[in-house]
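Internal QA ticket QA-208
Title: Verify multi-chain structure generation after dependency bump
Assignee: T.L.

Test input:
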Amino acid sequence: NAGVTQTPKFRILKIGQSMTLQCAQDMNHNYMYWYRQDPGMGLKLIYYSVGAGITDKGEVPNGYNVSRSTTEDFPLRLELAAPSQTSVYFCASGGLAGGADTQYFGPGTRLTVL
Amino acid sequence: AQSVAQPEDQVNVAEGNPLTVKCTYSVSGNPYLFWYVQYPNRGLQFLLKYITGDNLVKGSYGFEAEFNKSQTSFHLKKPSALVSDSALYFCAVRDRPGGYQKVTFGIGTKLQVIP
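Actual output:
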């Protein structure tokens, strides 16, 4: 299993541009999450999904959108990029049985907005 | 609301010495507690978790953590530190029973093991 994969690894955007961060998991997990990590701030939850077709806001959703059309994929959309969105973005997934509550993280996407 | 605190930004320990990384939490009910480790330029990796049962939880790479309900703590420990243990460590908590699996992470503690 590849686990959780994220693309791209790095990206530089100009202010006002948009982009989609891709996330996919092959563990058949129902739960998927997007976090951002800023120095000294830990991880902040942006959006999460409890299954295909169901998404909800986390702590810091402004400026982002998500969709979950399949169990495997959970893309994060940035519209009108701003310097405040410069961060490292992590996607994670989690199951219900056995390893329930354990989250499995992707390698991250480092985004810079200039 | 649930919260977690990691009171130390950085912990320095000599190789071979025991290490402790501190974590305290606040939940309204009984907690699920987790430790994750992050190596440079990597995503977080699960180390161990407390769900129920024995207060001493053993995890990956020789790490263990002790759940102390009266002190609302879940400190991470290892008897003998290795240089390769140097990384960023995150404590996390989830209140239960929960609806979805929202977990609150601490801000992280940098562990530096000195050769």
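Spot checks passed. The longest strand of chain A covers residues 42-51.
Status: verified.
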